[in-house]
Amino acid sequence: MKNIYDVIKAPVITEKATILKEDNKVVLKVAKDATKKEIKDAVEKLFKVKVEAVRTIILPGKWKRVGRSMGRTNSWKKAVVTLKQGEKLDFIES
């Protein structure tokens, strides 16, 4: 198993992630090769909460233009972690 700090990269704080917080869900940026089991274990150990489910998606990089040249940003993996009833995890207030 990997180090928990290698699995979880950063929280994703967007308007949609804020809306999902009301449904007891947390959105995280994770390593591209991390599995759902590794993400669940890392969140439970790092934040000391109980995880009910993990959903993941790999987001492709966006095309960017700088002058005449076109390039792509890196693709990344996003995880939507559903916490069990009664658990709470807030990145903004804590």
Account of the protein in words:
- The chain has 94 residues and is α+β, with helices and mostly antiparallel strands.
- The chain has one domain (4-83): RRM (RNA recognition motif) domain (Alpha-Beta Plaits).
- The chain is built from three helices and six strands, in the order αβαβαββββ.
- The strands form two sheets. It has a four-stranded antiparallel β-sheet with strand order 1-2-6-3, sandwiched between helices.
- Strand 4 (63-66) and strand 5 form a beta hairpin.
- Which radius of gyration do the C-alpha atoms yield? 15 Å
Strand order of the main beta sheet, please? 1-2-6-3
Question: Strand pairing plus helix content: what structural class?
Answer: alpha+beta
**What coarse outline follows from CA principal-axis ratios?**
globular
Report the CATH superfamily. Answer: RRM (RNA recognition motif) domain
The appropriate CATH architecture is 2-Layer Sandwich
Number of helices: 3
What is the CATH level 1 assignment? Alpha Beta
Order of helices and strands: HEHEHEEEE
Brief account:
With 94 residues, the protein is of the alpha+beta class. The chain is built from three helices and six strands; from the N terminus they run H-E-H-E-H-E-E-E-E.
Keywords:
alpha+beta, Alpha-Beta Plaits, four-stranded antiparallel beta sheet, two-stranded antiparallel sheet, 6 strands, 24% helix
